[in-house]
Sequence to fold (325 residues):
Amino acid sequence: MTLRVLLDVDTGVDDAMAIQFAVAHPDVDLIGITCVAGNTSLGNVVDNTLRVLDLAGAPPIPVAAGALRPLIEPVRASHVHGGNGLGDIPLPESTRTVDERHAVDFARDLLLASSEPVTIVALAPQTNLALLLRLHPEVIPQIERILFMGGSASGGNATAVAEFNVWHDPEAASIVIGSGVPTFMYGLDVFNQVTIDEADADALLTGPSASGRLTGALLRHQMADDADGEPDPSGYAGHIGDAGALCALVDPDALHIERHPVRVALAGESRGQTIVDRRQRVGEDTVHAAGSAAPATRPTVIDVALDVDRERYARLFLATIATLP
Fold:
């Protein structure tokens, strides 16, 4: 079944692979892309997105620029995507044009004009989506669901407990999760598992496909996970990162998914943490809140990916990228 998809991106290394996957996979009808500051500046995000679409031989998919910064926090670009956001890999300039509308207005018009509900795949801080849902709640019936790469049911990468996309704009993530739109969290628990063997990356890097060569180079860029930000000492990591969220879209059966209450911590050292409540029974917090003057707000129950068949997604990713020019 073909899925109508609106991508929201902050095109860095792994977003670029996700865009290529979305262009290539036959079950994805990519109807638009919105851009937001995150991995790199908004200008870089837009430029990278257009260049990657060119290399993938994509049709004229509309692209719109959105939020320059989070709702409250300053811009805090990731240090792991290089100076241009693409691991400093040079790509030819694009002749594509950017839609003149702000991403929020663009998304509103696109959703309301769609003949069927649209799935939003968010691979970035969710600033654009939060603004869309607050400014234009009339679009909610037109959203099939929001699948977002972000959060974690375990540890973090931006902080000890917070994943980068949610940490970058916690208020936005909280708004989206609590919006009432069906929501699916593809977080670090599965994000960090899906990798491509070095030999396969080398085959892409030296192959005949321009998209394959870009993918091979992106896989070789190390998005460091260690505490000091240094590259993996093995010299190769091979994470497909955000592209795994697109794999989840087209092949959800490779995931172990559970439904749990989730909320975003907005204060203190845990700010930006997605608190995934996996308890099997009512806790003391709920019991004692029941007798208080101001009961605690109940977290929203969403789908959470907790484990993945990593080899299955690696095969799916490679097979899909292999179809690109």
